[in-house]
Structure formats: structure tokens, C-alpha cells
């Protein structure tokens, strides 16, 4: 039985990945901040360990076959690059250093699609496309890219595989995190939507992508875990159809979003935390589209419709009174 160490175990993707690992016969050590945060069921092959990812982790990685590093700082309101770098880069370096030291065979790093160049409906972004604005100005995306570059440059005895999920929707989104976008439209009489769009993927498919990358992924390669490219208007219409609602849909002018971004920059200069920034507001105006051909061809992934992801997320929110 292969032994796997997983970080970020209590988040949306981490929970789904661990459930898939256990279903597929892996033995899992999950590094968590609080054991009580685990949302899945107990399992004899799952061990929850409270650990600081910036500490010496070598003893925890003894006899581990592979590491899946999902933990990340994803909040959009932080104002310091170092706040992102400490989690997204420094803990990655620390974990990988100890993985190499303990002769871990594989290190799978979960990054983000936003370290890769996006495209349009005609020419979609892929694994070779260089990062583009506004994500070149996103502290989150930049620190993830910095970690990617370190891993690829410093791999020696441990194989490195990088996966790039797009916007994940599905069950076990407890905070909620990315699932917040569903609440923009769900149970609303008025829905205000940006004019841009993005790629959406069922979190179960992203979790399957992680498992398939473990078995089929090539050392030093990157894999986009992506599915449907949708405008925000199209995505919200799916929510309306699935939840049997008919709200008034109103487009947000790009100029207003840009203005809000400038306000956010002013607040940030005053050291006030805010989700508003020029890069975040610009991201809502572009079509942030990607291709999944490499993951389909090399990892053998089959993607579910985004409608199913929305249904599963809404069912989870309903059952957990979100």
C-alpha cells in the first residue's frame, strides 16, 4: 500500500483528493492545523497530524512514497507579498527540501491555472503559455509561480509534477471558498455579473486529475485540470436553471470595475485589507479560458459537466445550512 502525505487536507480540493485516495487503496497522512476541521469520514488508512509546514517535517515523511502539496494562501484581501510568499513559496521549499532528504519518490504540487497564459474561446490557454496580466500582478499567482520555478529547478532525486486546476466547484466547500460565486446568483432577484468569464471544473474531476497525475504524470511536466469555458453570465444562467429561478440579470460596466479597483489600491496604501485591487477587478473583465487537452490525452481524464458541479455544490450547501 502506497503511503501519501497530503497538505491542505481540510480545504475543498484537499478533502476530495483524500476521499479519492482512500477509495483507491492509498494510506494517507494528512497534515492539518486542526484535526477537528476534517470534513470527511474516519478511516483506518487515514491519519490526521497537526503540523506546522514551516517546521522540520523530515520525521513525518519517513517511509512516505509521495507528497501532494495543496495547502496555499488563497485569500484575495492580503496587502503584503510576504504574507503570500511565506505560505505559497517558503513552506513549499521547506516541504520539498525534507521530501528530498527523506527520499520521497514523487512530489505533486497543486498550483493554479493563473500561472499560465489564458486565451479566448478560439485560442485557449495551455501549459506552454506564459503568464499574462492581470495575473502577473496577482500576489497569489506570482508566489505560486515562484514555487513552481523552484521545484522544477531544484528537483534531483524526487520527481516533480505540477497540476493547475481552474475554478473548482463542488461538495465539501465548507468556508465556502470558490463556491462563494454560487451565492452571487442563488436565491437572488437581481444578479449583477461581470462581462468576463473563466474556466470551471468539477472539484471531483480535479481530484481525479491529482490521482491520475500521480500514476501517469511525467516528471517535470505541468497539467491543466480544466473543463468548461463560460462567461459569468452563462455560469449564472446555469445556476438559475438548476435552482428554477428567474432573476433580472444586469451587466456590471467594465469602467465601474476599474474604478473600484482604483479605490482598492487606495485602501491598500492605507494598510486596509480589501478584495478590491486593479488586478482583481481586471480579472473579472477578461475571458480567462484554458484547454484541457493535455490532461485528457496524457492523464486519461474524463470531465463531468459543470452543471453537475453546481448541483453537487448546492446540495452540499443545503445539507450544511450554508
TrEMBL record:
GO terms for cellular component: cytoplasm. Residues 4-224 form the NAD-dependent epimerase/dehydratase domain. It holds the Pfam family Epimerase. GO terms for molecular function: aldehyde dehydrogenase (NAD+) activity. Gene3D superfamilies: NAD(P)-binding Rossmann-like Domain. PANTHER family: NAD(P)-BINDING DOMAIN-CONTAINING PROTEIN-RELATED (PTHR48079:SF6), PROTEIN YEEZ (PTHR48079). It comes from Chryseobacterium rhizoplanae. This is Nucleoside-diphosphate-sugar epimerase.
Amino acid at each position: 500500500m502506497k503511503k501519501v502525505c497530503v497538505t491542505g487536507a481540510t480545504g475543498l480540493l484537499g478533502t476530495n483528493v483524500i476521499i479519492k485516495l482512500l477509495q483507491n487503496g492509498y494510506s494517507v497522512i494528512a497534515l492539518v492545523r486542526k484535526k477537528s476541521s476534517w470534513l470527511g469520514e474516519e478511516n483506518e488508512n487515514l491519519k490526521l497530524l497537526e503540523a506546522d509546514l514551516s517546521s522540520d517535517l523530515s520525521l513525518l515523511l519517513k517511509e512516505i512514497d509521495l507528497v501532494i502539496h495543496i495547502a496555499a494562501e488563497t485569500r484575495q484581501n492580503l496587502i503584503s507579498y510576504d504574507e503570500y510568499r511565506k505560505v505559497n513559496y517558503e513552506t513549499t521549499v521547506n516541504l520539498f527540501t525534507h521530501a528530498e532528504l527523506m527520499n520521497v519518490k514523487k512530489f505533486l504540487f497543486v498550483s493554479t491555472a493563473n500561472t499560465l497564459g489564458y486565451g479566448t474561446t478560439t485560442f485557449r490557454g495551455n501549459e506552454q503559455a506564459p503568464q499574462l496580466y492581470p495575473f502577473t500582478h496577482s500576489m497569489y499567482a506570482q508566489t505560486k509561480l515562484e514555487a513552481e520555478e523552484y521545484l522544477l529547478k531544484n528537483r534531483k532525486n524526487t520527481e516533480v509534477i505540477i497540476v493547475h486546476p481552474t475554478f473548482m466547484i463542488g461538495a465539501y466547500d465548507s468556508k465556502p471558498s470558490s463556491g462563494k460565486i454560487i451565492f452571487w446568483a442563488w436565491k437572488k432577484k437581481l444578479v449583477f455579473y461581470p462581462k468576463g468569464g473563466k474556466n470551471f471544473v468539477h472539484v471531483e474531476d480535479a481530484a481525479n486529475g491529482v490521482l491520475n497525475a500521480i500514476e501517469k504524470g511525467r516528471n517535470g511536466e505541468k497539467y491543466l485540470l480544466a473543463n468548461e469555458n463560460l462567461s459569468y453570465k452563462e455560469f449564472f444562467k446555469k445556476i438559475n436553471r438548476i435552482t428554477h429561478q428567474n432573476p433580472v440579470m444586469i451587466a456590471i460596466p467594465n469602467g465601474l470595475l476599474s474604478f473600484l479597483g482604483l479605490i482598492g489600491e487606495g485602501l491598500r496604501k492605507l494598510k486596509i485589507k480589501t478584495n478590491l485591487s486593479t488586478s482583481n477587478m481586471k480579472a473579472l473583465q477578461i475571458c480567462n479560458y484554458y484547454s484541457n487537452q493535455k490532461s485528457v490525452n496524457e492523464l486519461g481524464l474524463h470531465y463531468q459537466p459543470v452543471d453537475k458541479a453546481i448541483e453537487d455544490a448546492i446540495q452540499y450547501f443545503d445539507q450544511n445550512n450554508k
